[in-house]
Amino acid sequence: MKFPVRVPLKTPIKDADTDAEITALVFEEPDIGLSIEVEDAETPRDQMFILLAGMAGIGIPTFKRLKESDYRAVIKQVLDPYNALQVARAAEDGVGNAGEAAT
Q: Which top-rank group of organisms is this from (predicted)?
């Protein structure tokens, strides 16, 4: 997986803070701070939203404005490859259960 990953949106969204129109999301590799936030989240759903919104550099309220079709594109183009990368890294490092994706 190569970063950044740009996902054009079929339906633009408005930034929850600035009201600016967003027509594409650009996902960067997570930094350690974001990884810690993800680990501290209480539910798997919260982990996913924190991870994806953080990688895209937007707030969770803005991320939640995505339409279902755009959300599915983000999962396919970003989350699925990212999880596969984490599994491969864990197997390579011999850490944990290589069958489970790390966040």
A: Bacteria
CB atoms within 10 A of CB 10: 10
Query: Which phi and psi (to 5°) does residue 21 adopt?
Result: -80, 135
> What's this model's pTM, rounded to 2 decimal places?
0.86
Number of domains into which the chain is organized: 1
In which domain, by residue range, is 19 found?
Answer: 5-93
Asked if residue 4 has a cis previous peptide bond (ω within 30° of 0), the answer is: yes
pLDDT digits (tens, 9 = 90+) for 4-24: 999 999 999 999 999 999 999
SS3 90: helix
